[in-house]
Structures are given as structure tokens and as C-alpha cells.
Amino acid sequence: MFMITQLWLRIFGAGVCFIALIFFILPMFAGIHHAGCILGSILSILGAVFFICNPIIAEKLQQIWENGTGRIVLCVLIGFLAVSVILAVAISVGMCKAIATKPKEEHTVIVLGCKVRNDGLSLMLLHRMQAAETYLKAHPDIPVILCGGQGHDEPVSEAQAMNNYLIANGIDKERIYLEDKSTSTFENLQNAKDILDENDLGYDITIVTDGYHQLRASLMASSLNLKADAVSAKTSWYLVPCYWVREWLGVCYQFIFG
């Protein structure tokens, strides 16, 4: 059961798993620690062990399969894995579609917050600001709401740091609204909605965030009766795997509890 007889295939599979493991571990050295890194690392290690020790594992599984109770347990586990894979693929397709949802009309821009470091914008937040700057300069009549409060290890609020960047790069301060109290993506959007209400800006919005984040952000926006298009910032290639896996968990959570 699950026996892989070709040695080259086992070596190839283990190699792929080890390469994946590197991608999930690398962000940890940059101070990024979240569920995506952890889950991705665990799955990569389990995959490598499966390929390396395949003959032993296959024999043990065969023994369990021959036991009535063991067969039930294995069927449950196989079913769980199958459903997990289907969900991961479905969510990934949804994430790709959300990335491709470009603005069709000019709507209020909402930039979602991200880490501010002592020496300035984090790389991820800088990319979001570059995307926002480009879009705002191409559409000079639309307002922008900058979202994000101040964490205990941040020198200023994320909204203020973004505001400083936009003004320094030629965006009129009269177009900018600050939402500097939120601590999560949902609060970003919830508080931004209050600003939309207060200034009669309507509920059609364009969200600026990383591409991997657009699906979950749009689901949250929809739960608040906001209709969102997307302008996606680029994400450093080595960060994509861990954040992509984290979004699988985040989207599932949003569907269940959102």
C-alpha cells in the first residue's frame, strides 16, 4: 500500500520536499513566524520522511489496513487528506482569481496595514506603498484610506508611516484619510468603512495589499457589504510559499467564523 518501487522517484520526491522545507524555514530567519511557516515545514518534513522511508511506511500501512479498525482509521485519514488537498487547490484558484480582479472604475483606495520597522517601512509594506503610489498617480481624483494602528514594537502607526511615504512622493494630503487604530485586517476594513460612511465615499473600494492576501481581504470586505476590486503589490519570491499556505488556513477560518 502506497509503495513507491522506483528509487529515482523516491529521491526526487524527497528532494522536492527538502527544497520546500527551505522555503518555509528561510522566512523564520527574517523574523517571520506564523502558521504558514510552521504548517509548511511540518508538511515538508512529513513528505520527505514518507519518500525516504517509503518501504517501511508502506509495509506498516499494509499491516494496519489488514486490521478492521485500522482500515477505518486509514480511510478517515485518507478522506481528510483528500478533502484538505481539494480545499487547498480550490482556495489557491480563488486566490489567483482575486489577484486578477483589476479595478474597472475609479473607487476609493484602501491600503491594508503591514509591519513598520524602527528604520522605516518593512519590505512588504514598501511594496504595498509603491503599488498604491503608482495607482494613485494614475488616478489623481480618487481618495485613499491608509489603515493600521501602532504595535508595541512599531515607532509610529502603520497608517502614519504610509501617510509620510505618500506625501513625500507627491500625493496630495487632502486625498488621504488615516485609520490608525486597527490591529487586524478585519479591523482595517471595519474602521475604513466608518470613514467611508462619514465622508459619503460609497461602498465600492479598491484594496491594495499583497496578491496572496486579496481573497481573504475581499471576503472580509464582502462581509461588511463592501464591494472590492484589487491592486496587488508584489511579494518577495521567497516569502510566497509560507504566506500562501497561511492563507489556506486564514480563508478556511474566514469561511467558518467570518
Structure description:
This protein is of the alpha/beta class. It has two domains: 93 residues, no CATH class; 128 residues, HUPs (Rossmann fold, 3-Layer(aba) Sandwich). It has nine helices and seven strands; from the N terminus they run H-H-H-H-E-E-E-H-E-H-E-H-E-H-E-H. The strands form two sheets. The protein has a five-stranded parallel β-sheet. The protein has a two-stranded antiparallel sheet with strand order 2-3. Strand 6, helix 8 and strand 7 form a beta-alpha-beta unit. Helix 1 packs antiparallel against helix 2. The longest helix has 32 residues. The two termini are 40 Å apart. The mean pLDDT is 94.
Secondary-structure topology with pairs:
Layout: H1 7-29, H2 35-52, H3 54-65, H4 68-99, E1 108-111, E2 116-117, E3 120-121, H5 123-138, E4 144-147, H6 158-168, E5 176-179, H7 185-198, E6 204-210, H8 214-223, E7 227-233, H9 240-257
| The level-1 CATH class of the largest domain | Alpha Beta
Reported by name, the CATH topology of the largest domain is Rossmann fold
The strands making up the biggest β-sheet line up spatially as 5-4-1-6-7
Question: Mean pLDDT score, rounded?
Answer: 94
Share of β-strand residues: 5-15%
**Beginning-to-end CA distance, first to last residue:** 40 Å
Number of domains: 2
Short description:
This protein has 258 residues and is an alpha/beta fold.
Keywords:
258 residues, alpha/beta, Rossmann fold, 2 domains, five-stranded parallel β-sheet, 9 helices
